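Example 273, ligand octanoyl-coenzyme A.
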Amino acid sequence: MTDLDRAERPPSVRVAMPAAGAAGPLDGVALVTLDRPKVLNALDFALIAELTDALETLDRDPACRAVVITGSGERAFAAGADIRELAGQTPASLLADDHFHRWERIKRIRKPLIAAVRGFALGGGCELAMTCDLIVAAEDAQFGQPEIRLGVIPGAGGTQRLARAIGKAKAMEMVLTARPMGAREAAAHGLVTRVVAPEDTVASALELATEIAAMPPLAVIAAKQAVNRAEELSLDAGLEFERRSFYGLFASEDQKEGMAAFTEKRPATWKGR
Ligand code: CO8
């Protein structure tokens, strides 16, 4: 699909900055909704392009400090890549169009991403949830990598991120048998941050995002980068990365403010500088 085609179809990603709710103010939090409910929010290339653009715009916006990603409707976060679109691909089309580079761009988003998962998070949907930094799962959430049933394997990080998140034994079972994992089991294996009642999923994710958005913004970005390095670097390299980030934050006004506020027994006011 070309950019012109994309412009002609209705958007499949909605972005909102929710107003204050019963839980309190939602300052600095954006809600991004995957919006193709008729196909269980299947991730076609146009949706991924829209999502990438939306996340990069929010990443540049100083008013946004944390992002919740969810699926529209009650049945799915996302049931995977759009199989009808994938079916006609060839190695040459995949290489030439390079739609998958957008997954690298999502990974480079600096602000915290929280997946709010109801129902199915399968294939690319599970991979998208795992690309996020935290996952709030409804009790009815189902995480799975069923690509093997289609004659392929996960293609947007599933084999790598799942193995890192839940260990080789369970990841191998899920990838080789297509067996999905429910929310409670996923929580027990460390895949998700918290499990909540289905109707509370988005509110709970927004609450978590609000808590993070109230933290000093530069330290949040540095903390996200450092924890993510734990999956990518050797322990020595990760410790070195952490130490350099720690030292670097002493150049920020927020470090001075945070430590002064502690000493003076008052709440800190963050500037993001
Ligand atoms: N792609 C396209 N359409 C889909 C998808 C999908 N992944 N999943 C569901 N739909 C459509 C169905 O075709 C159906 O449409 P229609 O009403 O027009 O027939 C509608 O959504 C509702 O689905 P079902 O009728 O099948 O609903 P059920 O409740 O019976 O079943 C399931 C729900 C179990 C989720 C079932 O739909 C299913 O198995 N879906 C496919 C899951 C899957 O295999 N996902 C992996 C896809 S491959 C992949 O993700 C590779 C990732 C590569 C990187 C990502 C690049 C973007």
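Summary: The CA atoms of residues 87 and 150 lie 9 Å apart.
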